[in-house]
Amino acid sequence: MVMQSVAWAQGIGAGAGGANSTYSTILSLLPFALIFVIFYFLVIMPQQKRTKQQKELREALKKGDKVVTASGIWGTVANLGKETVTLQIADTAKIRIQRDQIARLRGSEDEDKDKDS
Predict the structure, then answer these.
(1) How many domains does the chain have?
(2) Are both 73 and 86 inside the same structural domain?
(3) Do 7 and 44 fall into the same domain?
(4) C-alpha–C-alpha distance, residues 63 and 80, integer Å
(5) For residue 74, with 0-12 CB atoms within 10 Å meaning exposed, 13-18 middle and 19 or more buried, which class applies?
(6) Does residue 43 sit in the same domain as residue 72?
(7) CATH code for the domain of 101
(8) What is the pLDDT of residues 1-16, one digit of tens each?
(9) H or E element in which residue 86 lies
């Protein structure tokens, strides 16, 4: 008889604690939400910012810009196409590459380092 009253008491307590069980479920999901927020600010947002800057760089290219490609080739923009860029890499050498392969513009500090070598 004692076992039946204990089981009955547990059954009543579980039914009355429905709001408490929802609260504990939300609390158990909180660490995952926190991890996602941290992941967003440390990984996703900086990557989106970098992608936007690269896109703006490629759209702003003009003839005469000194650039460095993703593979490390230094050159000067000789001609621009919709999808391609022609780079002059020496007095008589020109290559055509995809616009997406332009990594960055060369600055004056790059020129100074090159002269030192």
Answers:
(1) 2
(2) yes
(3) yes
(4) 7
(5) middle
(6) no
(7) 2.30.30.30
(8) 555 555 555 555 445 5
(9) strand 84-88
What's the pLDDT tens digit per position in 2-61? Answer: 555 555 555 554 455 556 788 888 888 899 999 999 999 999 999 999 999 999 999 999
Find the radius of gyration of the CA atoms of the chain. Answer: 31
44 lies in the same domain as 66: no
Q: Which domain holds residue 29?
A: 2-57
Q: What phi and psi values does residue 71 have, to the nearest 5 degrees?
A: -90, 0
Tokens of 115: 């002269």
User: Is the pLDDT higher at 114 or at 104?
Assistant: 104
Which of 112, 107, 71, 50 lies closest to 58 in space, CA to CA?
50
- Please return the burial class of 56, using the count of CB atoms within 10 Å of its CB with bins 0-12, 13-18 and 19+: exposed
Q: Which of 77, 73, 74 is nearest to 85 (CA)?
A: 77
Give the number of other CB atoms < 10 A from CB of residue 107.
Answer: 11
